[in-house]
Amino acid sequence: MTNDEGKLTVHREFDAPAKEIFEVLSNPANHAAMDGSGMVQSDEKTDRITAVGQVFTMNMHLEKLGGDYQTDNHVVGYDVNKLLAWKTADAGQEPAGWQWVWELEALTPESTKVSLTYDWSHVTDKDVLRRISFPLVEAHQLDESLASLAAMVAGPHHTN
């Protein structure tokens, strides 16, 4: 785990090709099942992520943010089998400066190092900083997300 000011990064080695991992990650329907924070409830019937510029909507829940809400996630990084990144915003709003970055590094044809970064270092809006106590997600929850992703990839039936 890396803990720089304004961001957390966790890593895990997977016994799976990057292509299989990316296939799971790029489908927002899988995000609730792999979310270690428990905030992601479901996706709003979003298509597979295929390019920078796409927006996918997630149904969320967090008591300290008032319960149920939705986020629009603006894809800012996309490189097949290597990178998937998005900036999160309240539904209908522009992103306020935090993002999620998934990086896949093929170690061998059958193993991949996966890094997950939660980065809130670019949040500058004082209202957002007052309303949200960063980090909302802790390192152990990011580790749980990687463990859930690993189980989904290893499982016989993952949602494509």
Rg calculated over all Cα atoms: 15 Å
What's the level 1 CATH class? Alpha Beta
Cα(first) to Cα(last) distance is 29 Å
Number of spatially distinct domains:
1
Most strands sheet: 8 strands, antiparallel
- CATH superfamily, by name, is START domain
Keywords for this structure?
160 residues; alpha+beta; eight-stranded antiparallel beta sheet; 8 strands
Draw up the topology in text.
Layout (H helix, E strand, L loop, with lengths): L1 E3 L2 E8 L3 H8 L5 H4 L5 E4 L11 E8 L4 E13 L3 E8 L8 E10 L2 E9 L6 H6 L7 H16 L6
Antiparallel strand pairs: 1-2, 2-8, 3-4, 4-5, 5-6, 6-7, 7-8
Helix pairs in contact: 1-4
How does this structure look, described?
- By secondary structure, the chain is α+β, with helices and mostly antiparallel strands.
- The chain has a single domain (about 1-155), classed as START domain (Alpha-D-Glucose-1,6-Bisphosphate, Chain A, domain 4).
- The chain is about 20% helix and about 40% strand.
- The chain contains four helices and eight strands.
- Strands 1-2-8-7-6-5-4-3 form an eight-stranded antiparallel sheet.
- A hairpin with a 4-residue loop joins strand 4 and strand 5.
- Helix 1 (about 20-25) crosses helix 4 (about 140-155).
- The protein is globular and about 45 Å long.
- The two termini are about 30 Å apart.
Summarize it.
The protein is α+β, with helices and mostly antiparallel strands and 160 residues long. 21% of the residues lie in helices and 39% in strands. Helix 1 (18-25) packs across helix 4.
